[in-house]
Every structure is written in C-alpha cells, then in structure tokens.
Amino acid sequence: MPALSVTPLTGMPEVRPGDDLGTLLLDAAAALDLTFEDGDVVVVSSKIVSKSLGLWADSAIKSAAVASQTVRVVAERMAGDRLTRIVQSTAGPIMAAAGVDASNTGDHDGVLLLPADPDAEAERLRVTLLAATGLSRIGVVLSDTAGRPWRFGQTDFALGAAGLDVVDDLRGGVDADGRALSVTARAVGDELAAAADLVKGKAEAIPAAVVRGTAWARTDRGPGARALIRSGREDWFDYGRAEAVRAALGLEPGSSGAEQLGIPSVAPEPVGVRVERAVTIAVSLNPFGCGADTSTEGVVEVCADTAFQVGQLVSRVRVALWGEGLDSTLDGAEFTGPDGDVRARLTVTDR
C-alpha cells in the first residue's frame, strides 16, 4: 500500500468576501515550495469558502439564520434556556444548527452560513487549480465539522467534493481471506477530510491541506459529496428517538407547538417534569377526553366521556410517557368519576 502524506498550507491570510481562493491556495503552496501533482487532493475548510462568498449573518439573530438554512428538524433539545436543533441543512448534511457557526470567523462579529451548493464550490476551485497548474487530475474536498450518533466528539467530513471518487465501493470483491464483500463501501471523501484535519486544526488557523499518494482523484467532476448523504428510505434516523414519538402523536419537531408544549433537556430531568410534559402533549393534541390529573406523584389519571375515548387517551399517554423514558402500567379497569365520566389510572415509573 502506498504511503500518504498530508501537508498543511500554512501562511494563508484572513479570507475576505470576493477573495480568489484558488489564487490564495496556489500562493500558499508556492511559499512552501510545494508543487501540485496529478492525483493530489486539496482539502479546504468550508469556512473560508463561506468567507469568500460573504455568507455572513448577524449573530444576534442566529436562530433566524439557522431556520433559513433548515430543510427539516431531526431532533431538538434544551440546554438551559438555549434551544439546539439537529437539522437537515440546505447544504445537504444533517448537522447541529444547520452548520451555522461563529468559530474562526476572524475579526467579523457574526456567524457564517454554509455554501448552498458545496459540490459546485469544490468544482469551481478544482477548475481554477487545473487551469493554473496544467494538470488533469486534482481532487478538491470542502470539509466541515460535525458530531456523530453513538460517538463522542466531532470529526471533519466531506461537505463538498469534486474530481474525486468519494466512495471506494468494495462490494462484489473479496477480503484478505477470500470472503465475499457485500456491504463494505469506504467513505473516502470523509476519510480524506478527517486526515487533513489532523494537520489543519481549528486553533492553528490553517484552513487547507494537500493529501498526496491516494488513488481516488479523477479527471472529471465526479459524483460530489452529496453521494455520501443517506436520504429517503435509506435514512434510518430521520427523527431522533423522542422526536419520532412526539411526531407520531402529532407534534412535529421544529414546530411552534413543540416549543410551547415543552422540549426535552440535554441534562437529566426529574420524573415529574417528564410526566407533565408527556401528559400535556398526549392530552392537548387529543380531540377527546376531559384531561388528565398528575397531582399524585407517580400516578396519571385520565378521563373521557366514553370507555372508548378513555382507552384512546390512555394509549396516547402511555406512548408519550415511553418517549420520555418512562414506563407505565394500567392500574385496574376503568371506573366512573364523580361527574359521571369514565376514568383510568396509570402508575408511572422511571425506565
């Protein structure tokens, strides 16, 4: 297997709106006596692309900026009095706050938005580099940073790409033992972005790096980083856990109703708070029933005009409680309330 080298392009100036990024990258390489070669992959922080395009928004209205860059909300949590949303961004990937970011923004007091079409911006850079160098095969990756389900911390990934096989599809081949490979498809675009981040760094103000020694650069534009996005039926995680339950009860994440009826916190919450939120959602979005009583700790009592309606409300409450990480059991059969209504009692425990 050939060795890879990753070289940071140091010495690049602060990028301003209208700057020619291709020229800045070429100048930085020349200052390091680095000559581009066929097969090189240039990994560039999407942040400097956004800066060159002037994609600034007022930090005082960051929530409006996030909303403008959101296709749909996947998950949402409160952190103190601050609401954070994981969303499908207009740029393509699912990210916290649609990728709207205030870090490494230089002397500008604002937040940066992601490019609307990262693959197109990568292609523009690739065309500039090819024209300036006379080469035929240079890959470009626009990198950004995101967290990952099930894993702590953040890593860089390919937000945009051009001139690159972003996937090394090994399906149909065999492994080192001769066994058939039926699933493995390496996310090369993301791996290159992460490798470059090891020398770029968030705190060192090094926004670009050259990866040399790979076999994945190509002479044409290629599929772009959008080929790495799972969507539609391929997306197994189109809602967060709590959001899937709330949406099934009629409360879509990102809606005004979601905020009004309460959004779970990132921090642990008392059982009583979670019970109250679950019951509020189940009852307020139900056309039947006279309500629910949560005044007794660990007990929810629901009421409706008929046994059928109380059964429907019990089902909604139990689903909502489950979404809050709570178990519930029906405490006996329905009974008649003091006003002649039908009632049922649930015992609630933490799961």
Short description:
The chain is α+β, with helices and mostly antiparallel strands and 351 residues long.
In words, what does this structure look like?
With 351 residues, the chain is of the alpha+beta class. The protein is built from nine helices and 17 strands. Strands 1-12-2-8-9 form a five-stranded mixed beta sheet. The longest helix has 17 residues. The protein is elongated, with a radius of gyration of 26 Å. The two termini are 50 Å apart.
The fraction of residues assigned to DSSP E strands is: 25-35%
Quaternary state of the chains:
single chain
Task: Quickly name the level 1 CATH class of the largest domain.
Answer: Alpha Beta
User: How many strands?
Assistant: 17
Which value, in Å, is the CA radius of gyration?
26 Å
Indicate the percent of residues in helices: 25-40%
CATH architecture of the largest domain: 2-Layer Sandwich
Name of the CATH homologous superfamily of the largest domain: CofE-like
CATH T-level fold name of the largest domain? 60s Ribosomal Protein L30, Chain: A
Main sheet summary? 5 strands, mixed
Shape: elongated
Major β-sheet strand ordering: 1-12-2-8-9
What is the arithmetic mean of pLDDT? 92
Number of domains: 2
Cα-to-Cα separation, first versus last residue = 50 Å
The helix/strand class is alpha+beta
| Number of alpha- plus pi-helical segments | 9
Low-confidence stretches: none
> H/E element string?
EHEHEHEEEEHEEEEHEHHHEEHEEE
Protein name: Coenzyme F420-0:L-glutamate ligase / coenzyme F420-1:gamma-L-glutamate ligase
Keywords: GTP-binding, Ligase, Magnesium, Manganese, Metal-binding, Nucleotide-binding, Potassium
GO molecular function, one term: GTP binding
Pfam families: F420_ligase
